[in-house]
Amino acid sequence: MPSTTVTSDGILLIGGRLCLDFCNTVIPNPQPPYDSLEKDGFPALLRWCCDTNILEQTQATYFDHVHQTQPDKTQAIFQQAQCLRHTLTQLFTAVAQQRTIPSEVLDTLQRWLLDAHEQQQIVLEGKKAQRIWRDSQHPALMLHHIVLSAENLLFSDDIRHVKQCPGCGWLFFDGSKNHRRMWCNMRACGNRAKNRRFHQRRKHLASA
């Protein structure tokens, strides 16, 4: 069974990849979908980014100051985050359901990737090259981390093992040995499904 981490706001991190965990800050089922970040907005997004190690404490302190002094700016970042999350959810849901990814989703992702890569530069440390961020305080820095996570997953062999929980609708990478994992979390959705089947059988037998 995959290990489960819980953020400071009680959000489960079961996706196995940063981009999938970001998608899972919305619970699709049962309807209507529940947005775990929407109530507190940018502060909730900031906490999630700290809990997932996207931001260092100094960066989080800076962005918290921006939120206190320029709330309109951080509100715009949060709205961008919601749009990005919607795009990534459409992308990986299509992958999990083995459907064609809509062209408009790919176009939107392409724009995000261009912006993220524009904020990086290549530097040499000894004989080794690596990418670093041009501006560690860029307003969309936290979102660029998520975009690059999506890019890495999309262009890796792991993309074949992206699945969607039939219970809650969360997305996850199936890293199990035989790639037969079905549920986001067996103790949650898996057990609820087993209990439903058990009660349905009892009800059927009682009415027979």
Q: How would you characterize this protein structure?
A:
By secondary structure, this protein is α+β, with helices and mostly antiparallel strands. It has one domain: Orthogonal Bundle (Jann2411-like fold), CATH 1.10.3300. It is built from seven helices and eight strands. The protein has helices at residues 18-23, 42-51, 57-69, 71-96, 103-118, 141-154, 186-207; strands at 5-6, 12-13, 26-27, 34-35, 120-125, 128-133, 162-164, 171-173. The strands form four sheets. It has a two-stranded antiparallel sheet. Strands 3-4 form a two-stranded antiparallel sheet. A hairpin with a 6-residue loop joins strand 7 and strand 8. Helix 3 packs across helix 4, helix 4 packs across helix 5 and helix 5 packs across helix 6 (141-154). The radius of gyration is 19 Å and the shape is globular. The two termini are 37 Å apart.
Task: Characterize this entry briefly.
The protein is an alpha+beta fold and about 210 residues long. It has seven helices and eight strands; from the N terminus they run ββαββααααββαββα.
CATH topology category name: Jann2411-like fold
- How would you characterize the largest beta sheet? 2 strands, antiparallel
Shape: globular
- How is the largest sheet built, in terms of strand order? 1-2
Class based on secondary structure composition and strand pairing: alpha+beta
Query: What share of residues is helical?
Result: 40-55%
Q: How many domain units?
A: 1
- Note the total helix count: 7
Question: Regarding CATH, which class?
Answer: Mainly Alpha
Q: How confident overall, as mean pLDDT? A: 88
The beta-strand count equals: 8
Distance between the termini: 37 Å
Whole-angstrom Rg = 19 Å
Percent of residues in beta strands?
5-15%
- What is the annotated CATH architecture? Orthogonal Bundle
